[in-house]
Amino acid sequence: MKSFPPYRVQVVKAIPITTREEREEALARAGYNMFDLPANMVTIDLLTDSGTGAVSAAQEAGAAAADRSYAGSDSWFRFKSALEDLTSFPHLFPVHQGRAAERILFSTALKPGQISLSNTHFDTTRANVELAGAEARDLPCPEAADLDSRDPFKGNIDLGALEETLSGPDGSRVGQVLITITNNGGGGQPVSMANLKAVRALCDRFGVPFFLDAARFAENSWLIIQRENGYVGKTPKEVAQETFALADGFVASLKKDAISPMGAAIGVRDEQLAKQCEAILIATEGFRTYGGLGGHDLERVAQGLQEVVDPDYLRNRAEETAHFARLINEAGVDIVQPAGVHGLYLNAGRLLQHMPPHGFPGHALACELYLAGGIRCAELGSLYLGTFDDEHNLISPAPFELVRLAIPRRTYTLAHLEYVADVLASIAKNPESVPEYRVTHAPQLLRHFNLKLRQVPRTVS
Ligand code: F0G
Fold first, then answer.
1. Atom 8, ligand 1: which residue's CA is nearest?
2. Is 45 a residue of the active site?
3. For a substitution probing ligand 1, which of 118, 184, 216, 219 has the most ligand atoms within 8 Å of its CB?
4. Active-site residue flag, 448
5. Under 8 Å between Cβ of 182 and 191
6. Does the record's keyword annotation contain 4Fe-4S (predicted)?
7. In the structure, what pLDDT confidence band is assigned to residue 31 with cuts at 50, 70 and 90?
8. Per-residue pLDDT tens over the stretch 188-200
9. pLDDT of 178-190, one tens digit each?
């Protein structure tokens, strides 16, 4: 039997409907940078699943009744108790968003010159490791390199490489192992419980702390139940509890799996580490019982954390993403297989194989989705990961030219996703007509947010 969303829509927001001419003008004005497009020129926004989920009536009821006391508010105790229900961490702190959690935890847990090992560091995570003076090193499992492989846990860390690094000449410099669940930078693929347990054992053996970047903990738990032996019949909450129990600490952006517009948390077991985190938290974010969040967002998180582990919700969300993946495949476009939950990663390099990496096929496909259908999404290819010379020429391309279609939670209906697949099908019918792009401006810092490009006019042959 087909699943359906365990909720009905009660409040709606109109979305802008634009003409191709209006979109051409808007994108040119934005310097062909998706982050510079005004949202009122976007019809379907698949730029991110972060802070973009639809809130529930129960979340808004909590928000309306929120307690804004500076210290010890009721809203804080609800936030804390929702996190305690899922995690077993004795020290929990609220922060305004994930990157603040990263900055606080890494600036205390890591020392300059140390190494952070991960399945894949998300971009802000990498930046915060580097700001702490440490090196961020990714050790994705070998299966991740084959975009078409349907291996169930392509988000895993390469255990062999992890053990080799820990026991090798760099071993004494490893300050933390950080596992991102699900692996957003690695195609949104899940990490298995077996992999997490093996990481725990290696961290114990080498005396290194094991942290989770748990932004999508519920979706990872769901995929463990679906794909890993021994988890059928467990609830997402039980799997989440088992996951958190393995780690020494976590950072989690709660803009994803707490379905909140804002919020994040840090959890640690070590008392000394907790004291240091708390000092930085109070100095830079806010007092330990609100951490830069308003009472309303503490409440939305507390309620969202209960809603997100509902198996009916997770089943339907995962099935909608899988359905979207099938539609895209039928449209003639390949994705990173198998479909995860929070987004689909299009293989733009394969679709636009006529285009060299210096024409930025991922970005070209993203621009075409906008121009043809008002759909906004982001490139994960050479524009984001390649290296450039001083004249903004690409000197080394990324291994893959991908485009991420992130799927906001509870926000779009299947009809919206079908529309996106239709637009993709129209592009896939004539991929040679998609123009290349060149970079005209690229700052050193946070390049992909601030790039400017130009379209290369197509010469008719
Ligand atoms: N870690 C992961 C795995 C993330 O995906 C993100 C954000 C963060 C940390 C940072 O959290 O945004 O609350 O500061 N990812 C968003 C995305 C931005 O679009 O994937 P934040």
1. 98
2. no
3. 184
4. yes
5. yes
6. no
7. very high
8. 999 999 999 999 9
9. 999 999 998 999 9
pLDDT in tens, 341-361: 999 999 999 999 999 999 999
Mean pLDDT over residues 284-306, rounded? 97
What is the side-by-side strand order in the sheet with 135-138? 91-95, 264-268, 249-253, 210-213, 174-180, 115-118, 135-138
The token pair that represents 365 in the structure block: 């496909």
pTM: 0.97
> How many residues appear in the chain?
461
CA of residue 167 to ligand 1 center, whole Å: 31
